[in-house]
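Re: that chain you flagged

S.,

Sorry for the slow reply, it's been a week of failed gels. I finally had a moment to sit down with the sequence you sent. For the record, here it is as I used it:
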Amino acid sequence: MELTGLNADQAPPISAPLRFFLTAPLFAIFAGFLIFISDASVLTSRFAPESIAIAHALTIGFLGFVMLGAMTQMLPVLAGVKIYKVKFITTFAHTLLVVGLISMVFGLYFSKQTLNSLALISLSIGFLSILFPMLFALRKVENRSPSVKAITVSLSFAIAVVLMGADLLSAYATGSFSDYHSIIANVHSVWGVFGFAGVLIIGVAFQVLPMFYVAPRFKQFCKRKVVILISVGLILWLVFNLFVPQIAYLAKIWVALFFWAFATTVWLKLNNRRRPISDVTVWYWRASTIFMTLGLFSWVFNSMINDQHIVVVSIVIGGGFILSIMMGMLYKIVPFLVWFHLNAKGYMNIPTMNEMIDKRSAKIQFVFFILSLIGFTLSYFEPSFLEYSAFLFIISMTILEYNIINPVLIYLRTIKTKPDFDMSAFTMESK
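Prediction finished late last night. Pasting the structure tokens below so you have them in one place:
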């Protein structure tokens, strides 16, 4: 593992990212239960309140929480910037996001405007209270690496997505829907998937693949141009949808082309890594590239048939691409956090990162997750698959929660003992 470029001095308290990571699988389990009890015919419509509620239990509750936790840790360590009052901000934002998301899910599911209003306030303040400090902290970075630039772009898209989401949620809180509601909903979802999550994944990959997998570094064109080209495509997609929707598919093809090129590049990097030892996180990265390729072609083709199968496209891209990478990242980042913080406190006789999570359990979780994704896709055409797929998904997410709790328990047990070295004179923890 290559650790060049990491800045340990600015690392936040371990509780800051862990609160997001440990909560994420719980919302995924929650989403699985909602799918299990829902009518399959209702979930085939992306604009059904139940579908929106379940989608956001996953996108905010799982994807959003993992991404916020990752950025909380990675900005200080990779970029060397200190997020102002990081412990307070993460606690405050996390609390509001949990309250807001639960209110939103039940508000949409049971058509309760009061809950939707609470969700609107809590989610808006929760997201903006953590996104703006992150974006502000990045302004102070002197050495703006490709990863830092990508994270900056991702955060900018995230703020736009949050503001659009607030507008959409206000319609459910007031019962008043604008003429542009469906257009805003489309941009909100596409910018959330490709602008916020997709660009962040690309930026993180520039650092994570060489660091954790000893894979070849990305070429300069990829690191310098791809994020810009994708951003241009997403902005064009917005403009075309507003003024010339009949050619909006051209922007789709533009965005899809560069994400497909990235997916192909990741596959090749993993093939050429210097230590070709396979583990479940490599499986997740490989699965994500396959699902992304299938999803991108489906997304472009679907526009030619009036978006009839957009739900399937969402499952393949959102579940297959983004969820896969997020789970792969959890299996790497959580053990790394525990090792990193214990090592910084002077503990030397600790398990290695590879020893903190049971490999067999992680592989079982991966298999259940992939089977659930395949089942969800098939259930769009054959509803009888839905309950079985939801059950597999719940089991998969429960195992994931168990697996990432284990390293945390190692941390809690270890800090109760005396460290091998007194590091208090050399380290300073962010507050």
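What I noticed first: The longest helix spans residues 310-344.

Talk soon,
D.
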